[in-house]
Amino acid sequence: MTELVQIDPGLKPAGVGELPPLPAAVGRRSEPSRSRGRRFARRGQDSSQAVRSAFQLIFLVLNAWIGIQFFLWVLHWESGGRTVAVSRPPGVEGWLPIASLMNLKAWVLTGQLPAIHPAGVFLLVAFLAMSLVFRKSFCGWLCPIGTVSETLAGAGQALLGRNLALPRWADVALRSLKYVLLGLFLYAVGGMSVAAIRQFLDGPYGIVADVKMLNFFRYPSLTALVVMGVLVVLSLLVRHFWCRYLCPYGALMGLASWLSPAAIRRVPAKCIDCGKCSRVCPSRLPVDRLVTVRSPECIGCYQCVAACPAAGALDMRLGRRLVLSPAWFGAGVAVIFLGLVLAARLSGHWHTDLPDQVYRELVPIADRFSHP
Ligand code: SF4
Ligand code: SF4
Question: pLDDT at position 42, please?
Answer without folding.
Answer: 84
